[in-house]
């Protein structure tokens, strides 16, 4: 997609808020901000409506023999009288417009039977960000989020992530529309793409401590981008959410290159509904296209030091996702079940540089590259009593077909399908805190099993976050 | 727009879907206001507000209820069906006071529906129109699931329902002025019946005055305040926190000093802890419908309070017979 198309998309998105703003001003006598106006109106209405209840009430006899009658209780007046003063905020406070603040504290302990520095996903170019993470005690990503409405038409949010090595990164920083009509929403800035199911959620919302192998293999853990997103919710009684994104393509499977136009684009559709009183589901289909140039990955050549591979070409990924949630009578407080699965299929065509630095003593070898690979995961998490839940996840990737003109790909990518099985126990004292222990047998390389024990905690401080389905 | 499409055309089969989507989205964005609706579409967050909207809206409204009486309204998933209904609603009628804070913001954000956003006439929060009880003097998560605006379970006092009815009728007239006369007429009709019903309930409920009770969750301050009953203990150590067996024993010990007659819970609450306490303290365990649909009798707002009063009285009479103190 070139610059002109991006502009056209922005224009398409930009028309509606302007229209909405004008209409709002036109429809009222004075052109004041909608939100403040309505708040005033509600306060006024509250004052008017309160004294309604404590009127003296007529006695009506009722033919219920089991009930002894006596004069009615005049308890109403006292409570209703003191009401009018409620809801008047302190308007002089300069901090009254501060964004809501929330903090996620996270960390844990990892016991890995294999050296994480030598981690490989056999047959897959692994993003440098992927892998099981450090051994021993460590701080996981701690997040600071600020969010507020910008004006009557837009809202904004910033999430900064602080990593264990004292580096700071902008995880999300976006504006989004609040006043568009007809089911349209526009988001711009840096955000997690709406593809798949887990991708749009922050990692601290995920049920398992680490991301599925498929997310590591196909999305470098999670796909966030700098760009613009347009979503449309269809005006029907069945949920149908369509989205399209164009962006820089800075993250795996793209690569950050300074150029005009878009480095990645995505579109997706999600639908869902209810099954009976206690069940609900959501399913989706997503497509992500990226055009990486000299994309770095940890080498497919599986030597312990590995090499650095480079890829330039086209990466096209399809994702099918499904999630089903169930609880008795739709009340998840005591027991609830969540089952989810995602399936990925990706085609990459272009030029591959194998072992670009010669570190694995194979290359550098440059040749035409073409691959078709698939993978996915399925998991279930069951809360069997308040505070306690348990889960199981199975990951599998298929090596698929790899063609490489420079050397027989069997020499660096043996015919082997990586798998991993993980089990989880979670204790959540409240909805704002949880402790988890996860054990996994990771068979990502031929003949090697990494037995992993991960322990983590997550604390959510501040503003009450509402969670997506 | 034409450039947008032509640039996509060269991109292979996937661009076909993209193009179809962009066209559909663009069409809707630029289309004129939708055709007049036969009836006002209302998203009611809780069954009591659905029932009240039905009383006032009659056949001028089409109501979708987001939750039912066996669900804890604090703990609702922002599931796809709710988002789809939020997208098409002309008016959202909710409790507010942070009761729906865990899910309503998601519905509002994802609905792409400016009519029901906070601050719009189509966003009605009932708790704004009543005097709230238990407004905390400090807001700290160490105190459990406290609501800064006060206790949100306002629907258990029928005088609150009357106050909300007046405000809701006003709002219905505002968002659907074509049927203003009908809303006004139904409000007057409802007020007449409701006023006499309150008098009847207050008369019936007179023996409950001063009766000490234990509550499972702090869900009933408005009911107790209305009927003049007193709350001596809460089974949840902090709001939203499940009681441990140790804490239940503490409550039991407390009841030795401050005897209660009954332990109250809502239809959606798990019964184990109140049944345990009722058995050990030899008091009555009372399940109240809490909202419309909470039991077989509570089919509308009138039956809700008929049934609530009746259940309390039955327990009161039973306690008088069994343990004369």
Structure description:
Chain A has helices spanning 3-27, 34-49, 76-81, 213-219; strands at residues 100-112, 136-139, 142-149, 154-162, 168-177, 184-192, 224-233, 239-247, 264-275, 279-290, 295-298, 308-326, 336-354, 365-385, 388-404, 419-430, 433-445, 448-462. Chain A is mainly beta. Chain A has a domain at 108-137 and 183-462: Porin (Beta Barrel), CATH 2.40.160. Chain A has a 16-stranded antiparallel beta barrel. The longest helix of chain A has 25 residues, at 3-27. Chain A is globular and about 65 Å long. The relative contact order of chain A is 0.13. Chain B has 2 domains: 40-133 and 143-201, Rossmann fold (3-Layer(aba) Sandwich), CATH 3.40.50; 206-322, Nitrogenase molybdenum iron protein domain (Rossmann fold). In chain B, helix 4 crosses helix 5 (104-111). By secondary structure, chain B is an alpha/beta fold. The longest helix of chain B is centred in the middle third of the chain and has 25 residues, at 180-204. Chain B has helices spanning 2-9, 14-30, 47-57, 80-88, 104-111, 158-175, 180-204, 221-227, 245-257, 272-281, 301-322, and strands spanning 40-44, 61-65, 91-94, 123-125, 212-215, 230-234, 262-266, 284-288. Chain B is globular, with a radius of gyration of 24 Å. The model of chain B is unreliable at 1-14 and 23-37 (pLDDT under 50). Chain B is 46% helix and 11% strand. Classes of the chains: A mainly beta (469), B alpha/beta (325). At the A-B interface, helix 1, helix 2, helix 3, strand 7 and strand 8 of A face helix 1, helix 2, helix 4, helix 5 and helix 6 of B.
